[in-house]
Amino acid sequence: AVFSLIAGKKEQDRLFALATRDGLTGLFVIRHFRTLLNHAVVEAHRKKEPLSLILIDLDFFKKVNDTYGHVAGDVVLKRVAKILQESVKKEGVPPDRNIPARYGGEEMIIMFKNCSLTDAAFNYGEAIRRAVEAEVIEYENVKIHQTISMGVATLHPEETVPDLMVHRADTALYRAKETGRNRVCIEKPETSPET
What we know:
195 residues; alpha/beta; two-stranded antiparallel sheet; globular
């Protein structure tokens, strides 16, 4: 009976991982991430705690696929995802506080619970950007250098759903790409309702 319970639990965990994790990167799939984000927004609003997120795009990723092939692109995606997972872990921080996910294609997203806009951008975002830039990804004797652009936004006090925050992060990401890539841009103050 104990064996059956353990085996059943392992199978249940395996099926949950298949349903919630991206098969290539191991990050959460966006559908599951949205559920976690919606819960985090409700909690942050109720507790009056900060909640921030970073939207990430791999710079010129199409060129990697076109030059080295899609298998090389997959290697790059996996390595960047690994850097994200390693970078969001900090000593004394609960493992469910900073949550990365694959947003789609070459875009990724990270939610930071109880984390201000500046903390997310400069203590996490800039460190992640530097780590990716410094990484040399090897594929079939070729060294691939990858950079990322990032847009950072935070939940405003009156917001009870994440949509506007995600939109502001997307706008900041677009600005990062338009102004030279390989940079972190935060939401503009004028996008805030009170200004």
